[in-house]
């Protein structure tokens, strides 16, 4: 997972036009062969966004494979089961 550091628009972004980011927080080192629930602790970053938004704007997160390309979206059923959860 990476912190996006520039503004972007969902309707216009592609892999080649993706915004700048700071890589990588809590990287997963082994390849995943099936849908797997992953989690990252983003509490510190979110606190920075909330505490000083003028100097720490919230542009979101980028989640990507270790190769940076060739990622596939999960099926609708798998995505529903694996969608991000806010447990705090």
Could you describe the 3D structure shown?
The protein is an alpha+beta fold. 18% of the residues lie in helices and 9% in strands. The protein is built from two helices and three strands. The protein has helices at residues 43-51, 76-82, and strands at residues 2-4, 21-23, 61-62. A three-stranded antiparallel sheet has the order 2-1-3, with no helix packed on it. The chain is globular. 1% of the residues are buried.
List the helices and strands and how they pair.
Layout (H helix, E strand, L loop, with lengths): L1 E3 L16 E3 L19 H9 L9 E2 L13 H7 L6
Antiparallel strand pairs: 1-2, 1-3
Major sheet attributes? 3 strands, antiparallel
Fraction in beta strands: 5-15%
Number of strands: 3
Q: What is the chain-wise order of helices and strands?
A: EEHEH
Helix content: 10-25%
Give the distance, in angstroms, between the N- and C-terminal Cα atoms: 19 Å
């Amino acid at each position: 997972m990476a912190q996006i550091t520039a503004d972007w628009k969902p309707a216009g972004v592609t892999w080649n036009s993706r915004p700048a980011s700071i890589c990588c927080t809590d990287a997963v080192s082994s390849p995943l062969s099936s849908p797997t629930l992953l989690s990252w602790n983003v509490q510190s970053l979110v606190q920075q966004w909330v505490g000083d938004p003028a100097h720490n704007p919230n542009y979101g997160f980028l989640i990507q494979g270790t190769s940076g390309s060739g990622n596939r979206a999960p099926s609708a059923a798998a995505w529903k089961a694996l969608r991000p959860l806010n447990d705090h």
